[in-house]
Amino acid sequence: MWFFGSQNLVGATGGIAESQPVLCIKTNASVVSLRLSRYTGWQQHFPINLFMDKRLQDNSEKITHFGFEEVKWADKQQRVAEVFHSVAAKYDIMNDLMSFGIHRLWKKITIQKAGVKPGQKILDLAGGTGDLAYQFTQKVGEQGTVILSDINASMLDVGREKLTNRGCIGNIEYVQANAECLPFAENTFDCITISFGLRNVTDKDVALASMYRVLKPGGRLLVLEFSKPIMPLLSEIYDQYSFKILPFMGQLIAQDADSYRYLAESIRKHPDQEILKQMMLRAGFDKVEYQNMTGGVVALHMGVKY
Ligand SMILES: C[S@@+](CC[C@H](N)C(=O)[O-])C[C@H]1O[C@@H](n2cnc3c(N)ncnc32)[C@H](O)[C@@H]1O
C-alpha cells in the first residue's frame, strides 16, 4: 500500500512538479510522511498501519541479513536506518578517511559514465549527503532537475545543508523515499544513480524494478557499489583492513564501531559483479555491463531501459 498510495498521489498531482506533495516513508518505520517535494519541512504523519505494505506483511516471517546477523525481513530497514542516523553527521569525513579519498574518483567516473546533458531530469537514489547530486546539478544546468532522494532524514538533512551552502538551489529537489517503492510517475527520469546504497536495501529486486519503472525509455541506471576484489592478495589485505581498521576508525571518529562493522559485513553479503548484473537483467534492463574499479573493491554497473 505504500506503493499504491505514493503512486496514486504523485500521479494525481502530476509527478514531481515543484511544491507538490509526495508520499514518503519515514525512516522511523512507525509513520508514513507526506511532505513537499521541495523539502520545505512541511510534513504530515500517518500511522504506518494505515498504509501497511502487503509485501512487508507477507515477508514478516522471512529472514534476511543485516551484515552477518540474521534478522527478520521486516526489521532490516529499521536497523539500517539506525546506522545512518548514527553516522550522518560524520559521514563525509569518514568516507574520505576510510577510502583515502578514492571514493571521489569512483564518483567522478560514475558522473562521466552517466553522460548527463543540460535540461535532463536525474534521480540520485539513496543519495545521502549528495556528492553525486551536486555534480549532476552542474551538468543539467538551470533547465534540468536533480532529485536527491534517500530514505533517511538525517542523511538528507546533511545533504541539503551541504548543497545549499554551495549555492545549489533552483535545480535540486529533496525527496525522502524508499528505493523499493519510488513515489514518482513512470518514465520520469533520464538517468538514475544509486551509489553505495543498494546493499542496504532489503528487497533489491523490488528496488531495481521500481527504478526501472520510473526511468524513461532510453534512460540509464548506474549502480556504484562495493563488490568482490578480483585479486586474492588484494582480497586478503582488504579483509584485514575492513574488519580490523574500519570499526576502530569508526569508534575513534564517530564513536560508533558497530555501524562500521556493519559496513564491512554488508559488503561481504552484497551480490558480486556477475550476480548483480543478472539481477539488473531480470529487472528488465538491457545492455547491462560493469566496470571494476580499484581491483573490484568497487564496481560500476550500468543498464539501459529500452
Ligand atoms: C553508504 S550511504 C551512500 C550515500 C551516497 N549515495 C554516497 O555515495 O555517498 C547509503 C545510503 O543509502 C540509504 N538507504 C538505505 N536504505 C535505503 C532505501 N531502502 N531506500 C533509499 N535509501 C536507502 C541510507 O539512508 C544512506 O544514506
Compact overview of the structure:
With 306 residues, this protein is of the alpha/beta class. It has 2 domains: 2-74, no CATH class; 89-229 and 262-304, Vaccinia Virus protein VP39 (Rossmann fold, 3-Layer(aba) Sandwich), CATH 3.40.50. It contains 11 helices and 12 strands.
Description:
The protein has 306 residues and is α/β, with parallel strands linked by helices. It has eleven helices and twelve strands. The chain has a seven-stranded mixed sheet with strand order 8-7-6-9-10-12-11, sandwiched between helices. The chain has a three-stranded antiparallel sheet with strand order 1-2-3. It has a two-stranded antiparallel ribbon with strand order 4-5. Strand 11 (286-293) and strand 12 form a beta hairpin. Helix 9 runs antiparallel to helix 10 (257-269). The longest helix is centred in the C-terminal third of the chain and has 23 residues, at 232-254. The protein is globular and about 45 Å long. Bound molecules: S-adenosylmethionine.
